[in-house]
Amino acid sequence: MADIHGSYDDLFTAVPAALAGLLEEGDVGGAVAVFVDGEPVVDVWGGFADAGRTVPWERDTIVGVYSVTKTMTALCALVLIDRGELDPDAPVARYWPGFAAVGKEKVLVRQLLSHTAGLPDWDGPVEELYDWTTATARLAGQAPRWEPGTAAGYHSLTQGFLVGEVVRRITGRSLGEFFAAEVAGPLGADFHIGLGAEHDRRVALSVPPPGRDEDYVAGAANRDATPAAATALRVRDGNSIAWRRAQIPAASGFGNARSVALVQSLLACGGTVGGVRVLSPEGCERAREVQFEGEDRVLGMPVRYGLGYGLFGNALGWGGWGGALVWVDPDERMAMAYVTNQMREPAADNRGIELVMAAQDGLRGLRA
Predict the structure, then answer these.
(1) What is the value of pTM for the model shown?
(2) What positions carry a catalytic annotation?
């Protein structure tokens, strides 16, 4: 079996065993963390941080988690809603007047968070993603593709700029700065939106799926999804220095499994973890309020969206391009995170769910 490092409760041995199995099957590297009641019961990692398999994955290795970053951005919005500084039922233009252009004057804040605002596509050059002012100006001038609120279509790259600009207008701080000061910093979480150069040595670059190269592009798991008009994002873009430095709050977060599970444990534990209160219990419950249920016209599959999170039964969370996943079960006070540098084709990638099931096995023993 592949070597697994870290620690875990004996009741949760299925989790490190599952990670070892993935590495045995050929994955390059990865990490899994499970927190229950805000405390780690699994914190393990293994494999390698580089495609050449020469650099071991270490305790402090971090990796791009792509759309798992959306859960961090959503948390920032929930904090402001909790404080009464952001009204989810207000028009976005109340906070960002220029957003009202070309038919968007009635778009609500909650529609940005639930992928129903009608602005799913990034249609500019990839390079414009790296400049906040340019990116948000492009989106402010874009007309919605459908009547906002009437349909959902996954805002894969645009959601973070849309929510992030509202956060910036309210707080005077970028999304990454707000997250660092109000969430990651107080919790001691090693998660970054806008990665400083001092962390570069710790980054595990994304490895394309077998048989693919760095021109491999993001796509929906459902092959029947409507082809996007959006600019294609390639692995080489996600591995670039420019991507790391930029704040792309829908997709450019870097962290490890421990940091993701720690932060999202807030929603599992009523808003307080390790004695640090970030949200009220009511603020946490707000994330699970159903905003849309039905077919996502971009993903081509049925979805349930809460306020910034995907909803799965009583659980909530989201996955990222390449395989990363965060899963939060407030009823069990559990948060599980999986991160990896090994991409797989989305339609054939069940790794995250397999690890969730392994964690649930441990929970059954813990609660017995």
Answers:
(1) 0.96
(2) 67
